[in-house]
């Protein structure tokens, strides 16, 4: 059974202000912590 869909449905939302910097800080802290653990095990 074939379906001819010309339109795509998209789920969108408004970005949350301030989310990206907090996300980047959390990733950076996590990477620094993992690096510290690696350094301590050598």
Distance between the termini: 60 Å
Q: Provide mean pLDDT, rounded.
A: 88
Largest sheet: none
Structural class: mainly alpha
Textual characterization of the structure:
The structure is a single chain. This protein has one helix and no strands. It has 42 residues and is mainly alpha-helical.
Short structural description:
With 42 residues, the chain is an all-alpha fold. Helix content is 55%, strand content 0%. The termini are far apart.
Give a topology summary:
Blueprint: H1 19-41
Keywords, separated by commas or semicolons:
mainly alpha; 0% strand
């Amino acid at each position: 059974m074939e379906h001819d869909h010309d339109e795509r449905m998209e789920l969108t939302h408004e970005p949350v202000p301030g989310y990206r910097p907090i996300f980047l800080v959390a990733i950076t802290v996590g990477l620094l912590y993992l690096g510290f653990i690696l350094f301590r095990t050598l």
